[in-house]
Design brief:
Two copies of one chain form a homodimer. Chain A is of the alpha+beta class. Chain A has helices at 4-20, 26-33, 37-49, 67-88, 96-103, 109-118, 166-174, 209-212, and strands at 53-56, 60-63, 155-160, 182-188, 193-198, 205-208, 216-221. In chain A, the strands form two sheets. Chain A has a five-stranded antiparallel β-sheet with strand order 6-5-4-3-7. In chain A, strands 1-2 form a two-stranded antiparallel ribbon. The complex binds manganese (II) ion (4 copies). Chain A binds a DNA duplex through residues 3, 5, 25-27, 35-43, 46, 57-58.
DNA sequence: TTATATATTTAGCCTCGTCTAATTCTCTCC
DNA sequence: GGAGAGAATTAGACGAGGCTAAATATATAA
């Protein structure tokens, strides 16, 4: 079989190749996995040897058709776990990531299917990320629009937030911002600050543009169109 | 921290020293862990180095006061998982052991505490084994009486069955024998066969004496006393 | 087109958990 | 009390994953 470490490498490759749409470089992977480059080189050789990735020396790697379903299975585990932890075991959505990142490698597919059934086969995880089905279909990524692309006065529905920064997640949920929340953009500044008003509140929530760009949102009504 | 493998060694030592009430020998451990003896020797040195066990060369090992709570924590995880899997995720009690044996090393104490809370802090696992509390108290072992110690005509309540033989567990549950079941001993033979009648049924369930001896039961009424 | 900077790979070493083969200790039995 | 038998340990190796330092390939920029 495949070690937990190998699975994490494959998962990292999946996310990175999705982001950049290019071959994933050794250095990028090294940073992501928090190891030195030679460790990556030796690992990608093993993964290529076993046909999960295509490796071209000095040119980076891509997942093969063998590798992709492996990754999707892990992502299914991860997102179902996150959902189950928040929904059934009273975890805060800020704490689920680490627990899920470990357990994803150790639960059986049977376990995953059972918690999926308990949850009614949910389509998305607590951060709005799509959960692959048991036969590993994944919904296509949402429209690329982010909170940073909006105009003042726009109303948008939050679709997806990054799941790996607990502090941000705590901040967001404390201010009533989760997937499905509708917010109005009340201010954007030249120095990179976006201010929101969650629907039905008078609260003002400020976010650095950098962060706003990482939050996917669906435009509902625009003052500008 | 401690690797999953090390935890399994400690757990094995715990069970073996409980069974024999003596120092656990290298060979016993090797058989239990399904590795060769030199592997055990090198592992017990590491565990002794870290003070989880006391190791006397050529004389076997014993858990230290540092090692015992480590084991109890793992056993708590294992038994809570088994209970949760059967009760909330529709696992058959014959299938839970393997899943629990893997996951016990990977769930956090928080996870264990949450499933314990969901279950109402149960005292025993599906096989009747006591679940250590969050502060690691364990109920003392049940009376040593087994199904093999009974007389024909005795009524006994099943307390505990071995959890590592799926076939046996399936057989038992198919014939309505689980912890809490009351059965009457209807026959014992000189060639080692015990026959039971589960309470309220007319069914006859036969078991080899070897197996009967591994099932703990509480005598309720005896024809003989 | 050539020189320099940067990314990547190779070389060699380490720890963990395992193995086989060889050696040494312990125990029993005469 | 000594000879063997049998159990346990030591010696030396291997694969997985990691590291550092050295070598090499690629990219950039003159
Ligand atoms: Mn992971
Ligand atoms: Mn998530
Ligand atoms: Mn285990
Ligand atoms: Mn059990």
């Amino acid at each position: 079989m495949l070690s937990a470490i190998m699975e994490d490498y494959l998962k990292a490759i999946y996310y990175l190749q999705d982001e950049t749409d290019e071959r994933v470089r050794t250095s990028t992977l090294a940073e992501h996995m928090d190891v030195e480059q030679p460790s990556v080189t030796s690992m990608v050789k093993k993964l290529a040897e076993r046909d999960f990735i295509h490796y071209k020396p000095y040119k980076g790697v891509v997942l093969t058709d063998t590798g992709i379903p492996v990754v999707l299975e892990i992502i299914r585990h991860h997102r179902l776990l996150e959902r189950y932890l928040t929904e059934r075991l009273e975890y805060d959505w800020a704490e689920v990531h680490d627990e899920a990142d470990r357990l994803e490698h150790h639960i059986s597919n049977q376990f995953a299917d059972r918690i999926a059934a308990q949850l009614g086969n949910p389509a998305v995880d607590p951060h709005g990320d799509p959960i692959p089905t048991a036969d590993l279909d994944v919904s296509p990524p949402q429209s690329g629009e982010t909170l940073a692309d909006q105009q003042v006065g726009d109303k948008v529905r939050i679709e997806r937030v990054p799941d790996n920064d607990p502090d941000l997640l705590r901040y967001l949920s404390e201010h009533g911002i989760t997937p499905k929340t509708v917010v109005e953009i009340v201010e954007t500044t030249s120095f990179g600050m976006v201010t929101l008003d969650p629907d039905g509140t008078d609260e003002r929530v400020a976010l650095p543009e950098e962060v706003a760009r990482s939050i996917i949102a669906q435009t509902l009504t625009g003052a500008s169109n």
